[in-house]
Design goal:
By secondary structure, the chain is of the alpha/beta class. The protein has 2 domains: 11-157 and 286-353, FAD/NAD(P)-binding domain (3-Layer(bba) Sandwich); 163-282, FAD/NAD(P)-binding domain (3-Layer(bba) Sandwich). Helix content is 25%, strand content 23%. The chain has 10 helices and 17 strands. The chain is globular and about 65 Å long. The protein binds NADP nicotinamide-adenine-dinucleotide phosphate. NADP nicotinamide-adenine-dinucleotide phosphate binds at residues 66, 160, 194-200, 202, 219-220, 224, 246, 283-286, 332.
Amino acid sequence: MADSRSATAAETVVIIGSGPAGWSAATYAARAQLQPLVFEGAISEKNRMAGTLPLGQLALTSEVENYAGFPAGDLGRFLDSALPSDRRMMMPPHEGHGVTGPELMELMRQQAVNFGTRIVTDDIERVDFSRRPFRLFPAAGGEITARAVIVATGASANWLGLPSEEHFKNRGVSACAVCDGALPRFRNRPLVVVGGGDSAVEEATYLTKFASTVHLVHRRDTLRASKIMAQRAIDDPKITIHFNQALAEVLGDDARGVTGVRLESTTERGRTTEVEAAGVFLAIGHTPNTAFLDGQLELTAKKYIVWKKHFRTDTSVEGVFAAGDVADDYYRQAISAAGTGCMSALDAERWLAHSHG
Ligand code: NAP
């Protein structure tokens, strides 16, 4: 891993974030001879709990059926040849399905490395965009200066904020079925998934591999998920959908962890039911990872970075670009994140070429 922390020479372009947007930006920037430096995030318990580990949200998903160019098939030999053995051996064997999120992310990372991208496995905790070159402050200490910056820090899972949810985090409450679903405590037990979008349906479907039954709890009477995904959940005999219900409380005790949930009707005030469950998985949307910017870029009311020019990735600070879910609350797809990652590198390249920064 390279780490060029020079007090004097500014980096040409620093990319913060390591999801599809970050790696796509890095590949394009590297091929444009901009010698990008990527801060991929730290591998820490704090980031694990927040869902902000390196490789982004896609690394927390299972099979990716809709990323163009990856139809189902046996990718095993390709992965063996494309990835370095030390990273390949950390991944589960490929089982003849389509590409998985972690596989796709490793491939994107490697593609960026192949063109000379340098990577630091750390978070940027703070930035100073008030003067040039821009200053970035890594969690491990020191300071990086950069002529251009691409922010691609993505978004992370939301929580309901119930005291009982907080109490049972890591003891049956999770926001990532793919990370935690295979734990022994969930095997052959009833599980609850909260949410009605694609993530909730995907998590519920994934959990049917381990659970005796999955209760999908949604606050309205129709799922938000795409039709094909919603139909899959409706047709799955192991999934029971509880419409017009909200999670009121996670039930359990310190010895056993989660033992069930109390649901409250969203249409009949005060009407509650209890459902036995060994685990509760939240899938209720995401919040963009923009807190570290400390108000230095213009944000929307929902804290997404504002793209200031139509069909460009420019932010409110000239020379700082944004890509992927950190600026996109509309499409929020891996492929659209990768697309804006590419755009941000081209925007940075053109901005630098006009002798800015
Ligand atoms: P989402 O589409 O925003 O759905 C969030 C769900 O959580 C909604 O059903 C929402 O209910 C519910 N929700 C939000 N706040 C809640 C609260 N406080 N209490 C109870 N329920 C609450 O988020 P997502 O499912 O994470 O998907 C994000 C994006 O990623 C989408 O564009 C999606 O298409 C994409 N995605 C795609 C795939 C795939 O194609 N394989 C997989 C996962 C995600 P309401 O419906 O009532 O608002």
